[in-house]
């Protein structure tokens, strides 16, 4: 069960019926965005990363494990980038409704788990809200919202501390990963922009930051003329390959653990809810 046989949309309906009702049946739904990524990266950056890492992970997993991939959601929630041409954004209500409505249909087919595999940092919290709303409506299906870069071991060995903390968009990591995965889509510029205290970029007060424990609802035009937050100057395909390896190893282990367990025990939770 390799290649297209992992693709939900390339199966026939009897195959869907059989797989959905199998033990631990799981779908991974890649999420990205269609938004500016500086003058050197394509609008599809986040969606491309989500899809290609998901594909690489599926190729590493035992083909007998019950997991399939939905088509990638390419347009997401990106209002912070709409001052730059090319950015397309769904409203928050529309994205939540999309997840809930399609999720309800998938639950109705019998799927046991739905993993929202997201590579756009601007919709992490929104997809968590959508997941909770969907789970409330479909208590027999587990919903797991994930962020591509979250919790990945070994990134600090590859990226400088400043870039790990402040390289939020189209900086060293994303430029390098794109140089490895799709170099034909990368332009020649290597911007350094949007960093606190650099070229007039505002410095947050002590204890506050763009993202983290005390974040701010920033808009890109507040911080950057180029649409970049970070320093892409040292980006390379070699670094991108190393980053991809870390991502694939991390998520392969996470999905292996999930697919060989009965967690989350949603059926027992649903039974308790019905009994009460």
UniProtKB/TrEMBL annotation:
Its cofactor is Zn(2+). GO terms for molecular function: creatininase activity; hydrolase activity, acting on carbon-nitrogen (but not peptide) bonds, in linear amides; metal ion binding. Its EC number is 3.5.2.10. InterPro entries: Creatininase-like_sf (IPR024087), Creatininase/forma_Hydrolase (IPR003785). GO terms for biological process: riboflavin biosynthetic process. Gene3D superfamilies: Creatininase. Keywords: Hydrolase, Metal-binding, Zinc. Pfam families: Creatininase. Belongs to the creatininase superfamily. This is Creatininase. It comes from Parasynechococcus marenigrum (strain WH8102).
